[in-house]
Amino acid sequence: MTVLHLINRAPPADALARCLASLTAQDTVLFYESGVLACCAGALTSSARSSRVRFVALRVDVEAFGAASRLDPAVEIVDDVDFVDLVASHQPIVSWA
């Protein structure tokens, strides 16, 4: 199984950089709660965007923070059912702060 990386608040820049540096192909990074602000345009490195990593943000939080128009183009918006599916299909799960 692949790793699910959780970012539930806008982490310090070094934490996001460490997360991005640790990614391997097939991993998924899920941004939720105020973490959706960490995946706005320019936050993800070009090497991270060009890798086979999947970047997703939880729709309800994207809407709550008014971030839809600011998301990095590499970020896919998912719903609560997708969130549960991601948790069920990934192992291990790593939370970044």
CATH architecture call: 3-Layer(aba) Sandwich
What fraction of residues sit in β-strands? 25-35%
Count of β-strands: 5
Structural class: alpha/beta
Order of strands across the widest beta sheet? 4-3-2-1-5
CATH topology-level name: Hypothetical Protein Ychn, Chain: A
CATH class annotation: Alpha Beta
Q: What's the end-to-end separation, in Å? A: 23 Å
Mean pLDDT comes to: 89
- pLDDT < 50 runs, ≥5 residues: none
Q: Biggest β-sheet: count, sense, barrel?
A: 5 strands, parallel
Element order, helices and strands? EHEHEHEHE
Number of helices: 4
Rg of Cα set: 12 Å
Helix fraction?
A: 25-40%
| Morphology call | globular
Name of the CATH superfamily: DsrEFH-like
Q: What's the number of domains?
A: 1
Oligomer state of the chains in this structure: single chain
Question: Keyphrases for this structure?
Answer:
single chain; 97 residues; Hypothetical Protein Ychn, Chain: A; 5-stranded parallel β-sheet
Any chance you could write out the topology, listing elements then pairs?
Blueprint: E1 2-7, H1 13-22, E2 28-31, H2 46-50, E3 54-58, H3 59-64, E4 75-78, H4 80-89, E5 90-96
Parallel strand pairs: 1-2, 1-5, 2-3, 3-4
Structure in words:
With 97 residues, the chain is of the alpha/beta class. Helix content is 32%, strand content 27%. It is built from four helices and five strands, in the order βαβαβαβαβ. Helix 1 links the parallel strand 1 and strand 2 (28-31).
How would you summarize what this structure contains?
The chain is α/β, with parallel strands linked by helices. It has helices at 13-22, 46-50, 59-64, 80-89, and strands at 2-7, 28-31, 54-58, 75-78, 90-96.
